[in-house]
Specification:
Number of domains: 1
Largest sheet: none
Number of helices: 9
Transmembrane segments: 17-35, 65-84, 96-121, 133-152, 158-179, 200-217, 223-241
InterPro entries: DUF1275
Distance between the termini: 27 Å
Keywords: Membrane, Transmembrane, Transmembrane helix
Structural class: mainly alpha
Pfam families: DUF1275
């Protein structure tokens, strides 16, 4: 792929990690928004706003607490993660092994999320209002997104971003690209600004394409609209395992 237009976008495997995770993040976010009662499982601030608005209406039912429960589950994952790391340390034989293990786990989680979501929808468990029946599905999605964010934040590029395309990414993209208009900057500095701004643009673009494609497929496929995202993740995971084995062999 070197010296091709694709190589100019996917310059390194680290960049590929960022962009694929953004694509898959868009796929999962749009599904959670459409089928899980606007539960943006990568946006805790949005869930807090929905939760506060529901509680402010004075109705203490499951629907009012649904989005707050999502935040509680997310914070529990954040607390549990360091405890598991300290309790069960893993000795990695190459820097890529950690990515390979995390992505392999996410392949299983995304497949389980897709199948469970389709089963719940088929049996009428996903209706007009949230019920406790959807919490296992939401929890699967939250664990997936937590691992996804962990992978992309350690993706190795100079501009780490969150998996979810948050407001900060838009601000960084615009500020870096418009800073190119400042002719007083040296060429090296302007080149660095260009690469950083383009990186944020590509993160947003991959997120948008993933969400758009999944939204179109969901009209006919429902939760199975996540199948392209799962296949892309599976193929990329196999590639990471191949890179890990190659680097481990070189080290030996």
């Amino acid at each position: 792929m070197r010296h091709t237009p694709l190589h100019r976008i996917y310059r390194t495997l680290n960049h590929e990690i960022h962009y694929l995770m953004s694509f898959i993040g868009g796929c999962l976010e749009i599904v959670s928004f459409m089928f899980l009662y606007k539960a943006l499982i990568g946006y805790m601030t949005a869930n807090m706003i929905f939760g506060i608005a529901a509680l402010a209406q004075g109705r203490m039912n499951f629907e009012s607490c649904y989005h707050i429960a999502i935040i509680v589950i997310w914070m529990s994952l954040a607390a549990l993660h360091p405890l598991l790391v300290s309790r069960y340390p893993v000795r990695l034989t190459s820097p890529w092994q950690g990515y390979a293990l995390a992505l392999s786990l996410n392949c299983l989680l995304l497949l389980a999320f897709m199948l469970l979501g389709a089963a719940l929808a088929r049996h009428g468990q996903i209706g007009h209002q949230p019920t406790p029946a959807v919490l296992p599905l939401v929890t699967l999605g939250l664990v997936f997104m937590y691992i996804q964010n962990f992978v992309i934040k350690h993706g190795g590029t100079r501009q780490p971003t969150a998996t979810s395309v948050v407001t900060t990414v838009y601000v960084l993209m615009v500020s870096r690209l418009f800073a190119l208009c400042d002719r007083q900057r040296q060429r090296r500095e302007r080149l660095a600004l260009y690469h950083e701004g383009r990186h944020y643009l590509l993160v947003i673009t991959h997120f948008f394409v993933g969400a758009w494609l999944t939204a179109l497929l969901s009209r006919q496929l429902g939760f199975y609209s996540l199948l392209p995202a799962w296949l892309a993740l599976l193929l990329f995971t196999l590639r990471i395992w191949q890179r890990h084995r190659r680097q481990r062999g070189e080290a030996q």
